[in-house]
């Protein structure tokens, strides 16, 4: 069955900084709807007062990876899109995929080895027998 | 007036080093943690409806209760305050284990009717073994929610907690839904695995002879089918097993004895129906109303 790989989203922002305006609007308008639509993601909203680090969205996945995304100077819709993108990702590292195809069954009739299609020693090879 | 003094240059590097060298901590001890919300999210993530108090007892391990009582006694509280009001998860874990084993045995007997009891037992033991269950539990975030004494939680604790979760599901939703849950999370662990990787068979030829006598087929006759590089360091022999001059199975090997054993294993896989090209497992929804149909048909 499908198990959403995103465990929790932490929204760290400051209630007074200018670049956290989008984060504040997101919390006021869209955060509750997002939480209701994704009941298997725990959303933590933690405002830290005073000048602190930049506003950030921290996503923790089931396999332990923690992904930080800066949301400074982003609008509320952009933050919502970012949050849905993180919710639909798995926690695997984002690296270059070597090949865009993969198969668990590389061979259906058996992989070729030098002895396929060679007759076995036991098959009798002789002159044609006359029908009786 | 002088400009305000800046923080020292080395401070950032020092703080970073402190952060990297800090010992690993439980997620529950880091900031932003709400146990009730996490448990609700856990039940939604598995798409199952749990009774929350049963689920909370399922995560409580006996080592946690002992360590908590010892800590309270050390802090010098009275006897009444020392005793915790929490219940263990050992009962739920036992029930979960029994149900999981019975359900998996039933699944395998239905899917591979030719497989003998020892084979079914080996498969069930593999699926309920510590490594597999703790691996499944780790990837479902059970290690964050489980309350136990050591961190990181040892694999037997994770196994007990996950089986207790299955027991809690059994109590809340009934055997059908728990069966579907066990099927969805345990049976995919068999993908890509071969029967004889899981089931250790010492004498495959003897087992094959027993199986053939059960089906009234004569004893197999081994013959060399193909051979390559006989006089080299790496010979390859293909030995075929023939019953009444009809081929049963063929297997490769480095020496003649190894090839014969491999041929016996291939023959056993064919007989038990556990080949690589068998039908994949059926994960469709079970049809409801089967019990009602049986009742109607028996009338």
Examine the coordinates and then state which fold CATH places here, giving the name of the CATH topology of the largest domain in chain B.
Answer: Ribonuclease iii, N-terminal Endonuclease Domain, Chain A
Quick one: CATH class of the largest domain in chain B? Mainly Alpha
Individual helix count of chain B:
15
Q: What is the CATH topology assignment of the domain at 6-88 in chain A?
A: Glutaredoxin
Q: Give the overall form of chain B.
A: elongated
The CATH architecture classification of the domain at 6-88 in chain A is: 3-Layer(aba) Sandwich
Widest sheet of chain A: strand order? 2-1-3-4
SS class of chain B = mainly alpha
Q: Topology as H/E string of chain A? A: EHHEEEH
How much β-strand is present in the residues of chain B?
5-15%
CATH A-level architecture of the largest domain in chain B: Orthogonal Bundle
What is the straight-line distance between the termini of chain A? 64 Å
- Taken in chain order, the helices and strands of chain B follow as HHHHHHHHHHHHHEEEHH
* Largest sheet entry of chain B: 3 strands, antiparallel
Structural class designation of chain A: alpha+beta
What oligomeric state best describes the polypeptide chains here? heterodimer
Backbone CA Rg of chain B: 28 Å
Low-confidence stretches of chain B: 289-299
